[in-house]
Design goal:
- The chain is an alpha+beta fold.
- The chain has four domains: 16-284, Immunoglobulin-like, CATH 2.60.40.1730; 309-441, Neutral Protease Domain 2 (Neutral Protease, domain 2), CATH 1.10.390; 447-541, Aminopeptidase N, middle-beta domain (Immunoglobulin-like, Sandwich), CATH 2.60.40.1840; 744-873, Peptidase M1, alanyl aminopeptidase, C-terminal domain (Zincin-like fold, Alpha Horseshoe), CATH 1.25.50.
- An eight-stranded mixed β-sheet has the order 6-5-9-3-2-12-15-14, with no helix packed on it.
- Strand 28 (500-502) and strand 29 form a beta hairpin.
- It binds (3S)-3,7-diaminoheptanoic acid (B3K) and zinc ion.
- Residues 121-122, 259-260, 262-264, 297-298, 301, 320, 373, 376 line the site of (3S)-3,7-diaminoheptanoic acid.
- It holds the Pfam family DUF3458_C.
């Protein structure tokens, strides 16, 4: 496979103004007729050949302006279809046959639980018909769907239904028209035996929009939360960005087999059922929040992505980074904002930092790719969102909003670039954002070394910041970035933020300084007392910040910092310092001793009377094994596991009564509601329970048992089941797992949780359980949710996946090899943990590389090929 380069971009030779499609649905042989209204692109020469993309299509007929083409007038090529001589403006008619039932890649038109559905982003439309399948070709669509009336009573596509009727042979049809020009990746079709839940929304300008969620009949009771989230998101986008919905109908469909979370097809969003269905008995608080976020995300794409789309796939973050930022702000507004930020950053620093440090590191705007399907990454999405957040903070919300208005107005109906977006922000704010653009082209996580000194005699605080970005594949040398650093100086006497005066300018008590050079010194004057600096407040830039904090400094910030995010981060840093010692002790076979300062800091936390219980729960949560691993030069999975468990148990032993008290104080009898206050109390209670269970405290065990049996809501049940399953006592794990598995055998989304919980257990039988469960009737290798729940989850089980006999690696490689044939996109994602071999000891490196080599020996899809080649480069 050959790479595609950003620098090779050219406008398409021909554009499509209108697309007419007719689908005659059949599982084995669907016929697709396409009539494309084509014309030469004004920027391109006359007389160029017409080249269309097409994969796995069986061409049955082709005509131009009604004249069938002879065999010598067109050619089927590796890419698709070429016609050498075409007029300036013409109609192209084609008819192809495709086989949805054989489509296990879940790209293009495929079958899922008896229904037909599509996934076209990024390049799936070319598996439906011959087409210029690129985002800068935007056309209006008119789509007729024909299907069996009895088995496919519902026939959906983008836009509005304009005609329907019966056909001979017990068939029927519906014709849909989408008046908004769109690229082919936003096309969608759904046909099946579905039921709908309906609601309505009145837009700001008073138009009525019909809202429909389509599901299988048994899921009719699981759509309330998605519907409520959709309405909140529609209102939020009107109030926050002035963006109104633009069709009379907005549909969401839940599909069981789906590669990603969801897809923003115009007027017809298709969702992985896991990203839309909820019920208090089947979905956790986290799942409720995820659904709200994804529903909003896909809805927001209607403007950031659909009305204004990407010129080419290198600009993917233009729509994804911006839309993630929009959904993050929406969720922060509807939930507890500080805890939202803590969750985002804690995930980001674990997963995106690891990606940025690994062999598949790439800039937020890559300059080449082999398979674009491999670039739906944490870097494009989450780092892209962090860049947009920095922009918002740099120019301020008002200028940012003006810039966004300008962007939507100027580029409506167009396919544009990241420069177009940032350009609007520069114009609206009058700021120079040239250096800032490097964030888009430079891969890798910048590291900042900070050093501060207080001059008592003169009341001066000097802060020196040095930045460097490590080399990443293909980018050995990096340039200095423009890094906004929000900070405060916390007075050690008063515990209050001190007034900041920089170069004679008063900046208030919480300010942003701009690091633009490799090294810069900031001199604060009139600093009344010795401070501890609180740096990078709110995670104001996606960087690693090193400052030689003492444990006393960190305990002080944990108690006093006015920035909630940095208070949490101080606690994490403090725990990490203690963990470092314990990891070393474990490796050296020395007795482990708990740092009393951590115990005291936690005791103080447990004594605080806060109304943000969700934040307190986060503060009481130790850094994950994965995050601890990120901080180590070389990952020692066993030492990390042992050290973390030791800290947890030491805290539980020392603070047992406090944890019990917190547990009791946060029990809820009220009916379940996914609301911030309840969610906060539940998280706090369940964190307390996890400490008690870490020492297998008798009272704790009893509480977990009762919580499991009370069956009040899935958050509580899942936490109890997890703790019972992860305990060392088989008499606790097995009965609970059995009861749960029998009760929920009929519900695939709950069975996914049941799979994950068992294969995440730290006991050494986890691998055997994976093998055993792969034969379970509820498991299927062709369902991505199942693969993620069982195999993906096991690969996060650090001690067991990284077993020294290499059996964990071997199992993953076996599955990747099988999925490479069935579903390359999922295979390429699943292999990720093996590609991080550089981080481990030599024995594990050898084992991991051997599995990568074994995969390389197969006939590989472009997806897996690209990842493996990078991993072994
Ligand atoms: N835009 C889709 C991504 C689908 C990509 C599949 N290869 C989901 C989203 O970001 O909203
Ligand atoms: Zn998106």
């Amino acid at each position: 496979p050959q790479p595609t380069y950003l620098s090779d971009y050219r406008a398409p030779a021909y554009r499509v103004t209108h697309t007419e499609l007719t689908f005659d649905l059949d599982p084995a042989a669907t016929r697709v007729k396409a009539r494309l209204h084509l014309e030469r692109h004004p920027e391109r020469q006359a007389g160029e050949p017409l080249e269309l993309d097409g994969e796995q299509l069986d061409l049955k007929a082709i005509a131009i302006d009604g004249q069938p083409l002879g065999a010598d007038e067109y050619a089927l090529t590796e890419r698709g279809l070429r016609v050498d001589r075409v007029p300036e403006r013409f109609l192209l008619d084609t008819e192809v046959e495709i086989a949805p039932e054989d489509n296990t890649a879940l790209e293009g038109l495929y079958r899922s639980s008896g229904m037909f559905c599509t996934q076209c982003e990024a390049e799936g439309f070319r598996r439906i018909t011959f087409y210029p399948d690129r985002p800068d070709v935007m056309a209006t669509f008119s789509t007729t769907v024909i299907g069996d009336a009895a088995s496919l009573p519902v026939l959906l596509s983008n836009g509005n239904p304009v005609e329907r009727g019966s056909l001979p042979g017990e068939r029927h049809f519906v014709t849909w028209e989408d008046p908004h020009p769109k690229p082919s990746y936003l096309f969608a079709l759904v046909a099946g035996d579905l039921k709908k839940v309906e609601d309505r929304f009145i837009t700001l300008s008073g138009r009525e929009v019909s809202l429909q969620i389509w599901v299988e009949e048994e899921n009719l009771g699981k759509t309330d939360h998605a519907m409520a989230s959709l309405k909140r998101a529609m209102r939020w986008d009107e109030e926050t960005y002035g963006r109104e919905y633009d069709l009379d109908l907005f549909m969401i469909v839940a599909v069981n087999d789906f590669n990603m979370g969801a897809m923003e097809n115009k007027g017809l969003n298709i969702f992985n059922s896991a990203a839309v269905l909820t019920h208090p008995q089947t979905a956790t608080d986290a799942a409720f929040q995820r659904v709200e976020g994804i529903v909003a995300h896909e809805y927001f794409h209607n403007w950031s992505g659909n009305r204004v789309t990407c010129r080419d796939w290198f600009q993917l973050s233009l729509k994804e980074g911006f839309t993630v930022f929009r959904d993050q702000c929406f969720s922060a507004d509807t939930n507890s904002a500080p805890v939202k930020r803590i969750e985002e950053v804690s995930f980001f620093r674990t997963a995106q930092f690891a990606e940025d440090a690994g062999p598949t590191a790439h800039p937020v705007r890559p300059d080449h790719y082999i398979e674009i399907g491999n670039f739906y990454t944490l870097t494009i999405y989450e780092k892209g969102a962090e860049i947009v957040r920095m922009l918002r903070n740099l120019v301020g919300w008002e200028a940012f909003r003006r810039g966004a208005d300008r962007y939507f107005a100027r580029f409506d109906g167009q396919a544009v670039t990241i420069e177009d977006f940032v350009g609007c922000m520069a114009e609206a704010s009058g700021q120079d954002l040239d250096q800032f653009m490097r964030w888009y082209s430079q891969a890798g996580t910048p590291e900042i070394d900070a050093h501060g000194e207080y001059d008592y005699a003169n009341g001066v605080y000097r802060l020196v910041l040095r930045q460097r970005t490590p080399a990443t594949p293909g980018q050995p040398d990096k340039q200095a970035l423009h890094i906004p650093i929000r900070l405060g100086l916390v007075g050690t006497k008063t515990g209050r933020d001190l007034a900041l005066t920089l170069d004679g300018e008063a900046l208030g008590r919480d300010a942003v300084i701009h690091l633009r050079e490799d090294e810069q010194e900031f001199v604060f004057t009139d600093v009344e007392e010795a401070p501890v600096p609180s740096l990078l407040r709110g995670f104001s830039a996606p960087v690693k910040l090193h400052y030689p904090y003492s444990r006393e400094d960190l305990a002080f910030l944990l108690a006093n910092d006015s920035d909630g995010f940095n208070r949490w981060d101080a606690g994490q840093r403090l725990a990490l310092l203690a963990l470092d010692d314990l990891i070393a002790a474990h490796r050296n076979g020395v007795e482990k001793v708990m740092d009393p300062r951590v115990v005291e800091a936690f005791r103080a936390l447990l004594d605080t009377d806060t109304d943000d219980k969700a934040v307190l729960a986060e503060m009481l949560t130790l850094p994950s094994e994965a995050y601890i691993a990120e901080q180590q030069p070389l990952v020692d999975v066993d030492a990390i596991h042992a050290a973390r468990l030791f800290v947890k148990q030491s805290l539980a032993l020392a603070l047992r009564d406090d944890f019990l008290r917190v547990y009791e104080a946060n029990r809820l009898d009220a009916p379940y509601a996914p609301e911030p206050e309840q969610i906060g109390a539940r998280s706090l209670k369940n964190v307390a329970l996890s400490y008690l269970m870490s020492i297998e405290d008798e009272e704790g065990i009893e509480l977990a048992r009762r919580q499991f049996e009370a069956d009040h809501n899935m958050s509580d049940v899942r936490q109890a089941l997890t703790l019972l399953t992860h305990s060392s006592r088989g008499d606790l794990a097995d009965p609970a797992l059995r009861a749960f598995g029998e009760k929920w055998a009929h519900d695939p989304l709950v069975m996914d949780q049941w799979f994950s919980i068992q294969v995440m257990r730290p006991q050494s039988d986890a691998l055997d359980r994976v093998k055993f469960l792969m034969d379970h009737p509820a498991f299927s290798l062709t369902n991505p949710n199942k693969v993620r729940a069982l195999i993906g989850a096991f690969a996060q089980n650090r001690v067991n996946f990284h077993r020294l006999d290499g059996e964990g690696y071997k199992l993953l490689a076996d599955v990747v090899i099988e999925l490479n044939r069935l579903n390359p996109e999922i295979a390429a994602r699943l292999v990720t943990p093996l590609t991080r071999w550089q981080r481990f000891d030599e024995a594990r490196q050898t084992l991991m590389k051997a599995e990568l080599e074994r995969i390389r020996g197969e006939a590989l899809s472009p997806n897996v090929y690209e990842v493996i080649e990078k991993a072994l480069a």
